[in-house]
Write a structure and sequence with these properties.
Distance between the termini of chain A: 58 Å
Order of helices and strands of chain B: HHHHHH
Order of helices and strands of chain A: HHHHHHHHEEHHHHHHHHHHHHHH
Shape of chain B: flat
Number of strands of chain B: 0
Strand content of chain B: under 5%
Oligomer: heterodimer
Helix content of chain B: over 70%
Distance between the termini of chain B: 38 Å
Largest interface: A-B, 65 and 65 residues
Number of helices of chain B: 6
Number of domains of chain A: 1
Amino acid sequence: MENLLALFQNLFEYMTNFNIVLFMLGATALGVIIGALPGLTATMGIALLTGLTYNVPLEYTFTILMGVYVGAIYGGSVSAILLNIPGTASAAATALDGHQLAIQGKAETAIKVTRLASIIGTFIGVIALVLLSPPLTKIALKFTSPEYFMLALFGVLICGSIAAEDLSIKGWIGGFIGILIAFVRLDDLESIPRFTYGNFTLFSGIAIIPAMIGFYALPEVIKAFAREQSFDVSEAKDKIKADENPFKIVFSKLRVIIQSALIGVGIGALPGVGEDVAAWVSYDTAKKTSKDKDKFGTGCYEGAIAPEVGNNAAIGGALIPLLTLGVPGSPPAAVLLGALTLHGIRPGPMINIESPGFISEMAALLMLSVIALLIVGVILAKPMTKILKVPTVYLMPIVAALSVIGAYAINLSRFDLMMVFIFGVLGYILSKMKYSPAPIVLGLILGNMIDVMFRRTLIVNNGSFLNFVNRPIALIFLVLILFTITSQIITTFKKNNKKNIA
Amino acid sequence: MNNRNLRRSDLVTSLILILFSSVVFFEALKMLSSTLEKNKEWYVSAGLFPLIVSICLALCALLLFIRAWKDGARFDFLNTSNMKIMSENKEVRVAVIIISWLAIYIFVLLKFLPYWLGTFIFLFVFMLFFKKITMKSLVTMVIISVCTTVALTYGFGTLAMIPLP
């Protein structure tokens, strides 16, 4: 209750601050545009703006980043409905029914319904963030090296299993590659250089934000030019007058909303998994539990509401492990981790002691972005049709130039420019072979932590592995890791056997 | 990429990954033995965890190889006619052009020219590669390149006070 009170107090403070409100409206509008334009994602938007907001005060930085985050996750649904091309991967499930509604002449209502669903989803995510963070911080205070090791390893493996676009094993390979890349640095315990091959710039490790910009932005630039350009943009207004009230439509699907919000928060809270998976699982669950299963995919509102509630609820969910454990719950949250570090905030169990009130401030900014989305969504609904017609040939070179300067701005290092290039090429090749970037990035972020916590546990116990199994939380994570690995291997080979028999 | 080609690429990738993990394994082994030579305990070594991860990566790569092989992928696609077909693929050509131009921007233009000039040339030529040239499109490209360059130079250089590359 105390936390909810703090949230609304902060929200009131922000709402009476003209500059914050103005920045939030602008950032949310930018986020909606970023999310709506195919090829530009929430992760990319936040990563690029992290560079630009490097010298901006903390309060304004996170106003901008939260606005872009919420706006972009919603924005993806606009192009999913109007173009049948999801602006972000998290809106892919929305396209299934959303675009069918546009074809039926209900584009405007569909956009209003998904906007409302996004707002409700974000709102529930914020409430979950506020209510779940304090108990989780208390539990996290009991975490020592074995628990952190197991949690981080579990995060990389579960992210690999769930986010994998093709085989789970590819997700794990991505995670291990990310962990190995994280080892390129001066070792924290022995203070000796690892895999640096005499390059002093590598002693501090691979910078995460330039690597993420490379992984997420450049492959999209290439893919945008490679795919066909002719988009058929539907008009963002209803062609048939059915007198359907978006509020009535949304609130008549209360069961789907609650179900999808819980899925969104839960999946968002899993390390590295994020909004994309939350949307698909929400859609799939809504379909399986619906009385009108057959209507899914033909243009039913339930099919558009479920993924939008799910992916937006995942935002709050993804911030829970980020702020309380220092482990990001989604790729955009991983960039936020970089932004937090840049501004001297150390997320983790000590956050309430080192930066008191920061969690409720972040929650209040998220809540403010919900209000901003309500306003911006209405303003941008009509011009969005024109924005979506901006040709790739003009837009993507700008994205490429922004990526380069955005990566450089973090450390003012020419070496980071090289990193953007290398990770961009690597990211493109891996994406063509259906390796999801999420586990690679999570491995890169958590790799050093996994290694240090593993060896610290062994050092404290004179080389004994017992501490990994005789501590209850560590044991739970160990069981989950073993279950994840065995179940995925069995599933992969069962599928393979079935294929061979067929 | 269709499933058949995906499995073929998995076959090649798995071998590259096994090779890569072997290199990491031996490098990590060197670190481990250097720690032991200093009379330190094995579990302090910086090479310990890379050693474990390299083994895990090799095992995953092996599983990937088995899966691709069981799905019917073989190395018979590595011939000149297939390479020629691949080089004529639109996406491959687009990727080569963009990657090369980006490399020129990062390693040549930004190194030897002022940021604003390098960025303007990068943007204008980038658009030139992919847009049909007419008088109208040329004017549009110049306007967009100039506006973007000014916005980036002013936004990062003046507003954010970042020394530009």
